[in-house]
Amino acid sequence: MSERRSGILIVVGTLIVGFLLSQFPLPDSLAWWRPEWVAMIVIYWVMALPHRFGIGMAWLAGLALDVLKGSLLGMNALALTIVAFITLILHKRLRMFPIWQQAMMVLVLVGINQLVFRWIQSFSGESGQGLVILLPAVMSALIWPWVFVVLRGIRRALHVS
């Protein structure tokens, strides 16, 4: 198997793990504390491999997430595309930031993801829940250092470039 194909399989494999983690059952009281796994994985791969994982791959991941969650087709796709676009613009800076500054940027990027998703949801007639929609962004920022270290370890150990 070619090196390029194996790299794509590893990226897709990490996205599948993100899809599974996003569907892991939680009690209703903890549902808003679920990190945005797929958004964090998209942010990492756009930041680490901007020439291989870009806006198109983020859009495909968002469509897959829409199908998986049963949401209006294109909601997650648009939100992840916007996040990937911003990450692509800032990827050189993000790579230079210390991990705590990256976590703050993940807070902003996942917050944008949440706001776009809820904004589109409001057009379909669903009511908003207030600022509680930003709790997944806070949780994503808190666990970003571990997600970053794990994904970087996978990328380096399996020589994905």
UniProtKB/TrEMBL annotation:
InterPro entries: Cell_shape_determining_MreD, MreD_proteobac. It comes from the Bacteria. The keyword Cell inner membrane applies. It is a multi-pass membrane protein. Keywords: Cell inner membrane, Cell membrane, Cell shape, Membrane, Transmembrane, Transmembrane helix. The chain crosses the membrane at residues 6-26, 38-60, 72-91, 103-120, 132-151. The keyword Cytoplasm does not apply. Coiled coil: none annotated. One of its GO terms (cellular component) is plasma membrane. GO terms for biological process: regulation of cell shape. Pfam families: MreD. It is found in: Cell inner membrane; Cell membrane. Involved in formation of the rod shape of the cell. May also contribute to regulation of formation of penicillin-binding proteins. Belongs to the MreD family. This is Rod shape-determining protein MreD. It comes from Neptunomonas marina.
